[in-house]
Amino acid sequence: MVFEESIVVDGPFDEVLAKVKTEFAAVGFGTLTEVDLQQTLHDKIGKEMDRYVIVGACNPDLAAAALDAEPLIGVLLPCNVIVREVDGQVAVDSMDPGLMATMTGEASVEPVAAAARELINEALQRIAA
């Protein structure tokens, strides 16, 4: 089962991370949270790993529509986008919003998920350009 949309880009990690936030914002997703998982795991358990940041992105209109369709969908929000180092490149991965519709089984979530998928794919294309 594919549960993510992914791209791999060249460039400095911090520049790609900034571009992720900029391009997701350009299609309506604000950044609600940012978790530096590399730093957190290093601080908490001494784990050494490549750079790995989770960006919690939210499109308020889509979030409101999803909540109207299924109030418990909040457990799946915000849309997480990860930016991680992979073999000298930077991977950008986002959850496929179609999972929300699949997991809830609520048909009224499907158009919201489809709209979110389109916007996420647009942001990923802009990042890759």
Task: Walk me through the structure.
It is a single chain. The chain is α+β, with helices and mostly antiparallel strands and 129 residues long. 46% of the residues lie in helices and 27% in strands. The chain contains five helices and five strands. The chain has helices at 13-26, 37-45, 60-69, 98-104, 110-128, and strands at residues 4-9, 30-36, 52-58, 79-86, 89-95. A five-stranded antiparallel β-sheet has the order 1-5-4-3-2. A hairpin with a 2-residue loop joins strand 4 and strand 5. The longest helix has 19 residues, at 110-128. The protein starts with a strand and ends with a helix. 26% of the residues are buried.
Number of strands: 5
- Determine the mean pLDDT: 94
Overall helicity: 40-55%
- Uncertain runs are none
Distance between the termini: 27 Å
What general outline do the C-alpha atoms trace?
globular
Q: How large is the radius of gyration?
A: 15 Å
- Read across the widest sheet, the strand sequence of neighbours is 1-5-4-3-2
**How much strand?**
25-35%
- Number of helical elements: 5
Tell me the major beta sheet.
Answer: 5 strands, antiparallel
What is the structural class?
alpha+beta
Order of helices and strands: EHEHEHEEHH
